[in-house]
Amino acid sequence: MSSPGETAPSASASAAQRTQAQETGQQGGATRERRMESLGWLTESAVMPKKHKAIEGVGAASILDLKAQLYRTQEEARKPTAHDAAAAAAASGEFRRAKNRTAPAHPLGAKNSGVDARAHKDKLELKAVKDGSASYAALEKKVELYEKLSRGEIPDEEDKEKYCVDFFQKSFDHVYEPRQPERQSAIDSAEPENDNDDSMARTKPMGLGRTGTTIDRDEHKRFVREVHEEVSEARQKASTMKSRRQEQEAARREKLRQAYLKKRLEKLIAEKQASSAADNLPAS
């Protein structure tokens, strides 16, 4: 068996001889056809191809990563750097200079808009608080509301509100509160003024080391008269407050009754209209 290196020259020589013979034959006869064919050795080799070896770390995913890295590098190369931008600006004759900002002399000197107005308002409020005018106005409103509630002068709209204090009971207790300590203090304060011979005359011996005092009848009558007047005044106030409360309750009930009658009348009118409309419809 001949090697490819040995067969190649012989094949080329035979091919050259045939082409030469064909040229001579063509010259001899015009009717003879000219043909050429390759008599060289085929491009296939007798050596078997090597088995494909897998390379560690190289695959389809790694190829995509390489492509992405290549694209990123190209994009970074296309972006102009700061030095290039400065050079381009210098070449074009355009320069950008930083603005000169005047900093305040004091670090806390800068103020926002509206700070002075708010500071002035705060000063006025602080002055009102120190003078007591704001507190006095608030107390006046509270006193007015308290007196209004204690007298029972509550409108129908405010009657629905709930309060933690029963002003009716409080006013009743205030009218009937005992005033004995006040009278006792008045007596105690009046005793030093009447410290004379008359007080000595009102004392009488009750035994060893004890003395009893006798109360003047005129003074006792005066005390009884004062108590009677206070009781009568309290009863009159209680009766007036009770009558006022009853009047308010009656007015509220009358208002509710009128509203109920109005709704009832509207309902009856609507029913009557519906029945008349049903009667007017033709029978099917």
TrEMBL record:
<dbReference type="InterPro" id="IPR025066">
    <property type="entry name" value="CCDC174-like"/>
</dbReference>
<feature type="region of interest" description="Disordered">
    <location>
        <begin position="75"/>
        <end position="118"/>
    </location>
</feature>
<feature type="region of interest" description="Disordered">
    <location>
        <begin position="175"/>
        <end position="255"/>
    </location>
</feature>
<feature type="compositionally biased region" description="Basic and acidic residues">
    <location>
        <begin position="215"/>
        <end position="236"/>
    </location>
</feature>
<feature type="region of interest" description="Disordered">
    <location>
        <begin position="1"/>
        <end position="43"/>
    </location>
</feature>
<keyword id="KW-0175">Coiled coil</keyword>
<dbReference type="GO" id="GO:0005634">
    <property type="term" value="C:nucleus"/>
</dbReference>
<protein>
    <submittedName>
        <fullName>Uncharacterized protein</fullName>
    </submittedName>
</protein>
<feature type="compositionally biased region" description="Low complexity">
    <location>
        <begin position="1"/>
        <end position="25"/>
    </location>
</feature>
<feature type="compositionally biased region" description="Basic and acidic residues">
    <location>
        <begin position="244"/>
        <end position="255"/>
    </location>
</feature>
